[in-house]
Every structure is written in C-alpha cells, then in structure tokens.
Automatic annotation (TrEMBL):
Taxonomic classification: Bacteria, Bacillati, Actinomycetota, Actinomycetes, Propionibacteriales
Keywords: Quinone
InterPro entries, alphabetized: NADH_UbQ_OxRdtase-like_20kDa
SUPFAM superfamilies: HydA/Nqo6-like
UniProt feature coiled coil, ranges: none
Species the sequence originates in: Tessaracoccus lubricantis
Residues of the NADH:ubiquinone oxidoreductase-like 20kDa subunit domain: 13-87
Protein name, per record: NADH:ubiquinone oxidoreductase-like 20kDa subunit domain-containing protein
Domain of life assignment: Bacteria
C-alpha cells in the first residue's frame, strides 16, 4: 500500500464493509497500520456485528473485534445516505 500520495494532514476515513472473514484480517490490520489516525467506519450489519453469518467459523463477529471502530452504520444494506451524512458531519467538524 502506497500512502505517500496522501497529503500531509489529510483526514483519512477507512470503511469496513461486507462480511469480514479471518483470512482478511492480516490485510485489514496491515492497511490500517499504514494509516495511523485514520477514522474507521463499519458500514452495514456484516461489518458491524457479523451479519447473518456471525456464527460461521471463519466470520469475524464485527470489525471491532480486530480494530478500533470509530463509527457504526447499521443496516442490511445500510442506506448510502447514512455514510454521506456521516462524512458530511466529519467535514464540518
């Protein structure tokens, strides 16, 4: 991952979306390790709590089990406007 193209001082928002499985965990942790201070948003029921697959052996029961999550947007699927509203609020400060 090349983070050199991100301007210094830029606010970075990372969205976890969809079913998160155990094989994905190292890549997610690596990506977020390259972006210290990034705001993490869990978008949708699967990313928030594992969704309907929460009891599968390979499914992570929500993004907060592997990284700090700053904001949760529930729904299956969540309305795109919910993410837009959250990002607009971040921009306004």
């Amino acid at each position: 991952m090349d983070v050199s193209s991100i301007p210094a001082g830029a606010r970075v928002v990372v969205t976890l979306s969809g079913t998160i499985t155990e094989p994905m965990v190292p890549a997610i942790r690596h990506a977020l390790g390259q972006l210290p201070g990034a705001t993490v948003v869990a978008f949708g029921a699967c990313a928030c709590v594992g969704g309907p697959y929460w009891d599968s052996y390979a499914v992570v029961k929500g993004g907060e089990e592997l990284v700090r999550v700053d904001h949760f947007i529930a729904g299956c699927p969540p309305p795109p406007s919910a993410l837009d509203e959250y990002l607009t609020g971040l921009r306004r400060g």
